[in-house]
Design brief:
By secondary structure, this protein is of the alpha/beta class. The protein has 4 domains: 120 residues, NAD(P)-binding Rossmann-like Domain (Rossmann fold), CATH 3.40.50.720; 70 residues, Regulator of K+ conductance, C-terminal domain (Alpha-Beta Plaits, 2-Layer Sandwich); 92 residues, Rossmann fold (3-Layer(aba) Sandwich), CATH 3.40.50.720; 84 residues, Regulator of K+ conductance, C-terminal domain (Alpha-Beta Plaits), CATH 3.30.70. 30% of the residues lie in helices and 26% in strands. The protein contains 15 helices and 22 strands. A 6-stranded parallel beta sheet has the order 3-2-1-4-5-6, with helices on both faces. A 6-stranded parallel beta sheet has the order 14-13-12-15-16-17, sandwiched between helices. A 5-stranded antiparallel beta sheet has the order 7-8-11-9-10. β1, α1 and β2 form a beta-alpha-beta unit. α1 packs across α14, α6 packs across α9 and α6 packs across α14.
Amino acid sequence: MKIIIAGAYAIGTHLAKLLSRNDQDIVLIDEDEERLNNVTGDYDLMTVHASPSSVKALKNAGTGNADLYIGVTPDENMNMNSCIMAKALGAKKTVAKVNNYEFMEPELKNLFGKVGIDSLIYPENLAAYDIVNGLKMSWVRQRWDVHNGALVMLGIKLRETCEILNEPLKDLCKPESPYHIVAVKRGDETIIPRGDDVLKIYDMAYFMTTRNYIPYIRKIVGKEHYVDVKNVMVMGGGNTAIRAVQMMPEYMNAKILEDDERRCEQINELIDTDKVMVINGDGRDIPLLIEEGVKNTQAFVALTGNAETNILACLTAKRLGVRKTIAMVENIDYVKMAESLDIGTIINKKAIAASHIYQMMLDSDVKNTRFLMTANADVAEFTAQEGSKVTKKKVYELGLPHGTTIGGLVRNGEGHLVSGGSQIEAGDIVVVFCHNINMSKIEKFFN
């Protein structure tokens, strides 16, 4: 598959990393030679030093034969215009990153499609969705809904109160059990567990279950004492913060702390001020936090453009007794540090946006895919095709690559967990967890 990425910035380089693992034919276009040089040593791709707005550059990059053209520069006009040109030159599918939420209105989809832009990506909206999902379940670090919630994957940090520590998984995850543990992150290591593996304190365990068993999972991991989130403090009044407070359910109240007075005025014009209070101040100011009721707040969300500020603010909030903290960490280099400090949920817009685009390059019928940055792994929903390899044998007989596990499947809209003796049928939507595996190797089982 030939993929052209315009923009060697954060999203483009992260996307190149994901795609290069799958031996794709990747071309990266950027007008800054230094940015291109920073990428070429790490990934298997070709670079073109030119502006994505140049028709000549697009032709030289082979856009006419491209299966997917992706515009992810910081300039939304360049992204959209280059997608229009790429489509006219023969690219099969185009996607553009935009900074204006108005472009995401459903009625505009056909309009953009007619001019040559097949899909739009608004990273702030994707990040806001993840943030609100995290707030709805204060005891969960990561949540991923499969097929509209028929199955749910929960990433949970295990503490002393967990009831299932140090027991072999073969005794915990039986065929009749209401959950499967599909992966474990232990320190820097990601484990696709086997029957003799055990869970240890401070592991990040990924559970696959159905919605009705979420309370049971909460009990066995010892998180029943975590209070539900009703009051939220948000530090930073950028677009991600605006989208997040607009998505919050009715029962949540939010305060936005923004140190730019002019931005505070703009925020007041954009949001429902009956539900959200905007405060002009610095979220690292401890007396201010106390004055604004941080001790009666169940969640603190740090969304400034500075990773260090967000990490420090979350640590401060934890010291003041806030149980749930979420930090936006845009610098990939800081993600591991943030994890080691145990600050809570980490949001990285570039990784979220790249994951969203990533699924477009998969050949088989893939409904959804997600790169879990914390676990350095992929989770994908594959649809089993008639006559495909997965429908001919039971799961334990399939010979799936090492580092792969099937977490569950959705059949006729209903979620089911999968064991070794399960039989996958044509039309089933199957959730596959992959660590250090070329996704094309998994696709072959479903085509």
